[in-house]
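Crash report, auto-generated. Payload:
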Amino acid sequence: MTPPPRGRVSRRTGVVALCAAAALAAVSACGAGGSEGTGTKVPGGSYSIGVPNWYIAHLTPGKAGFSGVADAIWTPLTQVGRDGKVVNAVAQSVQSTDQRHWTITLKSGWKFQNGEPVTAQSFADSWNAAAYAPNTMSNGYLFSNIDGYAALNPASGKPATDKLSGVQVVGTDTLKVTLVKPLSMFPYVLAGTAFAPMPKAAFKDLAAYDRLPIGNGPYQVAAPGLAPGGQQITLKRFDGYPGAKGKAAQITVKTYQTDATAFTSFRSGAVDIATASGNDLSTASRMYASQLVTSPTAAVVYLGFPLWDKRFTDVRVRQAFSLAVDRKAIVTSLLQGHAQTATGIAPDVIAGGGGTDCADCSYDPAKARQLLAAAGGWNGSLTLWTKQDPDMQTVLEAIVNQLRTNLGITSISLKVQPTDQIYPDLLAHKTTGPFLLYMGAAFPNIYSQADQLFGSASGTNVTGYKSAGFDALMGQAAAATSTTSGMQFAQQAGRTAMADLPLAPLYYPVSGAVHAKKLSGLQLGYLGDVDLSSITVR
Amino acid sequence: MGSYLLRRVLLMVPVLLGTTFVIYAAVYALPGDPVQALAGPDHMVTPAAAAAIKAHYHLGDPFLVQYWHYLVGLLHGDFGIDLNNTPVSAVIEASWPVTVKLALMTWVIEAVVGVALGFLAALRAGRATDIAVLGGSSLILGVPYFITAYVAQVFLGVKLGWFPVSGTDDGWPLSYLVPALCLALLGVPEISRLTRASILENLGADFVDTATAKGLSRARVLVRHVLRTSLIPVVSMLGTNLGYLLSGTILIEGIFNLPGLGYQVFQSVQQHDGPTVVGISTLLVLVFLLVNLVVDLLYGVLDPRIRLD
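Recovered output after restart:
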């Protein structure tokens, strides 16, 4: 990050004169220059990518967001392959007989970017730091299924200990983990950035580490890292990486306040890669067809029902709402084909997804009206809710019209809330109508979607759904002897929930990214993240 | 003059206190939960973690206690720590050069272009040039400047490729030129119209006739006598324009991705980052007050009849 030059603006009068002169000079001179992509002077090549601010706002495993940048900086114990399967990365083996007590052994030869070896202790240190409440790491809750989490997060007062009792270091390359409840999906969980290791050097100054991290991934953050108020970081290929090495030698990560600005910058050539969504995705498919990569996202956009509201306790009302929404029209006209109509809670890009569990996800206005009439019809006004997001608002407006036409509900209003308000309001049962929201899979297995949307302990179960049958099946999935059989139980659980229809799945979004002509090999992860290390510069 | 200056500076104290209070109260009243905003929307915050966050930022205290903590820090020159654990002063230090460059460039464009157009229009009053300036300024006033900004970004940056679209990579002045031009559109119509009216008023004044009768050249009369006198209201307008301009930077810096103070305020409002919003806003208010003081002092220089005491 180069800080903006400062000396020139110290004296006001000087600047005024300079300003006027330079303004004229620039007008005549700029025609020749214009903007260029970042140079390709480094062997192996370099490129730049435009990302949202939060990608690099925090660069500590316990705080970092799920992003392609985090994946480039750290390599956790396991990784999710292109096919959605979980494979060992730093781990040599991840084993358990009862799905509750796990033994993890590490491969040898892995090093941090400062040369420190990656040991079992590096993982334990990182996890303890993330779970310890006074560190206020935002990913801390992901450790709640590990024994001892409660002691680090007491209901009141300071925790008595700062170590998870369920994480035991046995020698330099063996880690024993005890879970609160069995979880067959634990190998998937370990692939998350939150479970990445941290070197001893990190703990001297956690705040400094957050801006200039030392990871064990294919790319390292070049000094000085992220400056306060800064907008970009530089990633340099880590040549001591034992896995598949990064293709490009250097990557400049530039942050943008909005995706639209990043896309406009791409169009002008100021960045080499930008993600495209909404209108920009349509523009991209028209103008940059050969430079656009799209992929279905392991996420679902759904219309959730407030089950605490007695108007929605009758399943026929929920079915009527679901059948009254023309998903195909939304996908083809509104989203211009950049989505798939949903027939379940996850598309087929993740293990166990793509099922046709939702019987009421078709479009049948006549049946919808019948069902609503049978349930006693609709009286009074209806308010629909969504979060602040231009695409979501457009879609919800279409739904309002469809419900008005197909169900004859005349008085419908629409309310928009910031994300940090809509979730707390939903969990406090303050929201007064159905809500349009997005849910992405935490890991690419149907289990994750089912658990996040309907699990009784989930913080994102916003409909207030609670079903003994569902919980029992998810319990079986968690205790299953393999991720595959666990996935099958989770599918059954998903079907159970879909029969109760606490929410109506609408569509699976499609994510896209555009790249400069000089780049090839761009791949998108299951949540639409760009895989930075696989990109080749021509 | 000295006592006038002292009085003005002392008057700034209650104004500053009042504005910090109002801004602090406004941030406090924002809907949403700062603890949740800090953790991220989909994250769960355990009671212990929430308590730690609240204690660190005094979020659990009553409003007045929070404000008091902030004020005491501010009086010690401490802008506080933002919710990312960075000192707000470090954020300000990194961002102010961007905003100063943008604001000064805009200001110069406003002054030079606005006064020149007004001057021309007044000399050609009622003729084609005048009508073009008046009509053009109405048109500019009618189109919101952020729309102009998006159009300029796509047209000048993407289609023609003359200017960078966003960011400060191309340095000063190239990266700032289009944003400054767009922002200047906010003030140019007002300045040009005010200059025009003021010049027309002075053209018929007795002292102009006297100057002409003395045998001074037309150019000398216009520049030394008419323009100089007519600029008094324009200078005060330029001063107050700085206020709009600084608020305008919030949108413009967002659109052009310039990491200045406005950009940080926008981002901080989204993240419920009270300390940054209040810190930067307080700074902007202080700058606004100082500029107004300078403008008032300049009156005396432009017009010796005005005495400051």
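Post-recovery validation: The longest strand of chain A covers residues 503-515.
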